[in-house]
Amino acid sequence: MHIVSAWASEAGLTLAQVRTAEKSNEITAIPELLDLLDVSGALVSIDAAGCQKEIAEQVVTSGGDYLLAVKENQPRLYADIERSALAALEADYAGLSQHTVEENGHGRQEFRFCFVLTGLDGIRDRAAWAALKAVVCVVRSRTVDGKTSDETQYYISSRAANAKTFQQAVRRHWSIENECHWVLDVAFGEDDHRLREGYGPENLSLIRKMALAMLKKAPAKMGVKNKRRKAGYDHAFLETVIRDFLED
Questions:
Q1: Can you tell me the mean pLDDT for 61-67?
Q2: Region 6-33: what's the mean pLDDT?
Q3: Sheet harboring 43-46: ordered strands across?
Q4: How many CB atoms lie within 10 A of CB 148?
Q5: Which residues pair with 65 in a beta bridge?
Q6: What are the tens digits of pLDDT across the range 218-230?
Q7: N or C: which end of the chain has fewer CB within 10 A?
Q8: Cα–Cα dist 244/89, whole Å
Q9: In this structure, which long-range contacts are made by residues 16-21, counting pairs with CB atoms below 8 Å and at least 24 apart in sequence?
Q10: C-beta of residue 191 within 8 angstroms of C-beta of residue 183
Q11: What's the confidence (pLDDT) of residue 23?
Q12: What is the DSSP string of the chain?
């Protein structure tokens, strides 16, 4: 079973989810998920599977802006962006919004550089992407234990913003992995669960995410796994977790 979720990165909350039979059906699930949400004024970031003209149109029509990852599944668009990014490099990024972040900690060094292209003449199909305003390029370099890995990622967006804003949005996009999926696995053992039949897996996935949202809001100074354990034997704490969440 594969579930496509909508994650509110600033609130740290799952807003909705849609079950698909296979991961390949993610393209059809995303429009269903968007129909459940009010995205007006929001920046909707989606990975490369959602980089589809129809999805971009749906987000804009609903009053939001999109930030879509571009990979080789859109070969013509990817080639145009790659060529435009190379031209920007050769011009030393003259006139472009740029932002650089360097971080050191936990045994690793990380360098991230973002620049934004707003001159889109090199994007042959630019008119086909609803309200397209920017191409975002993010270059990452990470060194761990003396080994360095590099990658470059491209995005398209209907929002006009600077490089710092886009770099933060790209960073927040992946918070669903660290703040939701990883915690569900560690604190709730989701990956080890063997339930496979009927609506059970989908329903339990929803319940876990609701429980995660409640426990994250609980004021106790401990991790989610320990909060969950405490709620199991301390009824007063359990009542506090539920009451505080419902009153918010």
A1: 98
A2: 85
A3: 43-46, 65-70, 147-157, 134-144, 108-117, 97-105
A4: 10
A5: 43
A6: 888 899 999 999 9
A7: C
A8: 51
A9: 17/202, 17/205, 17/206, 17/209, 19/202
A10: no
A11: 52
A12: -EEEEEEETTTTEEEEEEEESSGGGHHHHHHHHHHTS--TT-EEEE-GGG--HHHHHHHHHTT-EEEEEE-TTSHHHHHHHHHHHHHHHHTTTTT-EEEEEEEEETTEEEEEEEEEE---TT-TTGGGSTT--EEEEEEEEEEETTEEEEEEEEEEESS---HHHHHHHHHHHTHHIIIIIHHHHHHH-GGG----STTHHHHHHHHHHHHHHHHHHS--SS-HHHHHHHHHH-HHHHHHHHHHHHH-
In angstroms, the CA 93 to CA 73 distance is 27
Q: Do 103 and 79 touch, CB atoms closer than 8 A?
A: no
One-letter identity of residue 23 = K
User: What's the mean pLDDT in 173-192?
Assistant: 86
Q: Give residue 22's pLDDT band: very low, low, confident or very high (50, 70, 90).
A: low
- Nearest alpha-carbon partner for 211 in 192, 194, 232, 197: 232
Give 231-244 pLDDT, tens digit per residue: 999 999 999 898 88
Measured distance CA(14)–CA(7) in Å, rounded: 5
**Model confidence band, residue 55 (pLDDT cutoffs 50, 70, 90):** very high
pLDDT at 199 > cutoff 90: no
Phi, psi angles (nearest 5°) of residue 221: -85, 75
Among 11-25, 57-71, 82-96, whose mean pLDDT is lowest? Answer: 11-25
Between the alpha carbon of residue 233 and those of residues 9, 186, 229, the distances in Å are 31, 19, 7
Taking every pair of C-alpha atoms in the chain, what is the biggest distance, in angstroms?
64
Rounded to an integer, what distance in angstroms lies between the CA atom of residue 193 and that of residue 204? 10
